[in-house]
Amino acid sequence: MTMQPVISAKGLDLTFQTGDGPVHALKDISLDINKGDFVSFIGPSGCGKTTFLRVMADLEQPTAGQITVNGISPAAARRARSYGYVFQAAGLYPWRTIGGNIRLPLEIMGYSRADQDARVARVLELVELAGFEKKYPWQLSGGMQQRASIARALAFDADLLLMDEPFGALDEIVRDHLNEQLLKLWDRTNKTICFVTHSIPEAVYLSTKIVVMSPRPGRITDVINSPLPRNRPLEIRDTPEFLEIAHRVREGLRAGHAYDA
Amino acid sequence: MRNVLPVLTVLAVIIGLWYAAVAPMNIRVTLDQAQRAGAQIVPETARERQQVSVWLLMVRNPAHIVETYAMSRPRLPTPVQVGTELWKTTGEMVLSGRGFSNRSLIYHAWITLQSTLWGFALGTTLGILGAVAIVYSRVVDMSLMPWAIISQTVPIVALAPMIIVVSSQLGITDRTVPKAIISAYLCYFPVLVGMVKGLRSPAHAQLDLLQTYNASGFQAFLKLRLPSSVPYLFTSLKVGIAAALVGTIVGELPTGAVSGLGARILIGDQFGTPLAIWAALMAAAILAGALVTLLDMTQRITLRRMGMQA
Questions:
Q1: Ranges of each domain in chain A
Q2: Which domain holds residue B32?
Q3: How many domains does chain B have?
Q4: N or C terminus of chain B: which is more exposed, having fewer CB within 10 Å?
Q5: pTM of the prediction?
Q6: What CA–CA distance (Å, rounded) separates A219 from A57?
Q7: Residue at B86 is within a domain
Q8: What torsion do the CA atoms of A136, A142, A148, A149 make, to the nearest 10 degrees?
């Protein structure tokens, strides 16, 4: 039996009806994502990258085409709790401690108290926040808060980690550090990650597959399978291979953007 | 403690304005009384004085200005007179062991407080339940909200006697009940509006996140919407308790009640004892201040317990 793709999209279309007329957010999106892939979606605002992520998570309904997640519909996958979603804003509850925030999905999904404790401790370790369990979100820096929100997404055993510009609001140095950590985490957990960004270096550094998108209508213009090895020190960003992929991504973005410079 | 100085400054300004207002407010009556006692007043007849402004009367009769501050039935009493009356009907009566007699303001304040708290409890409950219904049902949102707003445009003074009449028709003899209903009527609205805003305060991303967990509507309510609304709730409760107190006092005014701060105000008016009116007003203000302060402290403690920076 051949390995079934985690995400399989065929001819997806999504049109929003707005006051200003229909907006073609996704047009003819076809893409397969395999287990263990780290896929980045890159493109300018309005290219549909976030919308595509939301379709995967059953937060938006496509108007045409098909998409399956682990062979079932996104709605069924959501009911099976297959998604760990990380938004740009960490969105931690200010009235819960870091531990309490990570516990939130576990409480909702009905994990036992002892299991909750064990999982909270494990994921805090994973994002290097051990010892911060009893702190409140306002006592942590922005980068730490975002790590806590990643821990929250990892606490239950979701197959798919969907990250919507998780480091978009953070400064360059913190971002580098978190990117490095995220790669280690991906390596250790072997999760499938879909990552929305508009930073070319971030996309190239993190991904095994880079999906370049362009707006009006939102569509895929290029899919690049990265030849970079799984193990990537930050310095890899200065190698010719890295720069070559970055160049191709930039070309793809430029091609999609040619009409409105 | 930082806000003590501004509060004291405002208080000083109010007291200053108050003292400045006493002389012009009382000068006419003072001059009438002085004339009857045989003093020389300019102009001489009461009729002529009607044509002259209070300022001119003060300038022409400077010797009598001091008397305006010590009348037994002043148009406007001085703060000290009000304070003295307040003490006579509270502290002094407690010291003489009659703290709870029906001449004591403590007794009347207690009557008013009871209705206020019942009304507050009822109004808050209705407000919260209404808000939950509005947030969770579009139909209720469209049908209930306009009525809630209209309900507050009806003057409560017009409504209060009707509520009293209806409740006595229904055989309810305890006056606490209609008064509590009137005060709930005023108090539910700020709670409703505040809670609707509070329950709707979570960001879209927050609700989306819960959806990816496949959380039920009830879980989303309990774990996200309700805690998010707590700061809004307390703000509304502070407005609500003040409204409840006003509602109770209004409920006591036009209804021939014999006890309660509202009744004291009405009786003071009928018997021409302005000091009693002012003392009752002051007692109501102190009561309102105490209730709001109490809620404010509860808010601080609750939010700190919840880990939010209050």
A1: 7-82+159-257, 91-157
A2: 4-76
A3: 2
A4: N
A5: 0.81
A6: 18
A7: no
A8: 110
